[in-house]
Amino acid sequence: MSEDDDAARRVLPVAEAVASAHAEGRVHGAVSADPRLAPHDAVPGPATDVWALGALLLHATTGQLASTGDVVPRRAGWLAPVIELALRPDPAERPSAEEIAAYLRARIAPPPPVRRRRAGAGLVLAGVVAIAALGAVGATLLLTGGGADEPPATAPTTPPATGGTSPGPERQPAAAPSTEPPTAAELERFARDYVTLASADPDRGYALLTRDYQARSPRYRDVWAAISEPEILALAAEPETLSVRYTYRYALPGGVRRTEDITLQLVQRGERLLIAGATARQR
Question: What structural domains and CATH numbers belong to the chain?
Fold first, then answer.
């Protein structure tokens, strides 16, 4: 058993107990007097408990003591993404305790006691579980690159937009005409088309990122594969800065639904628009 698997197995009962307490309206956490620890948590709440779970997982896998906003070392293994989210400085950007428990449970739950299966079936099941687990901790990792030891974003970080109606898989996001600066309507159309394209075919959505942003988005395909039923609720573009802001709702495996505020930072390459960065904030 790997070190991260062992840490997850030990912390899972704690995460489940905390999630159960939150469901009943109870909170365990208290704000530390140490200013390095969760400095934005002015009042104890569920997010404070989540920070503590992230700190526990970080210490169990790396021996490192946590402070809010830490870069999580790669040696934390597959737990690095969820630890990183749990230690976010803004409590509103952290996942819930139930989402952390679901992430751990999906990886370490013992396989059902069935008879022999074909080897390929186990691999397929593992892939589905991995996608569901990534979805459970939110699409934010997709938009900001996620993971440890990755270079910081130089362009404003932002998440992808979603559309209400799904165009056919052959439909591409609209390009800006000629080399003229795109209008607000063209930027909004690009965002709508991009979201529906990425949710239908993550590979083609990935092709609409700049090379630099592709390098900062290693989990792009996994996250988009877990997103379905995207719906844009509000949308606004700023041609002067080549940015699009929108609020969208989408579904994740297991019936989980999320609503997020997104900003896409675009660049123009001849007649094409590409995504240079994105930021996301969960509602």
Answer: 3-110 (1.10.510.10), 118-283 (3.10.450.50)
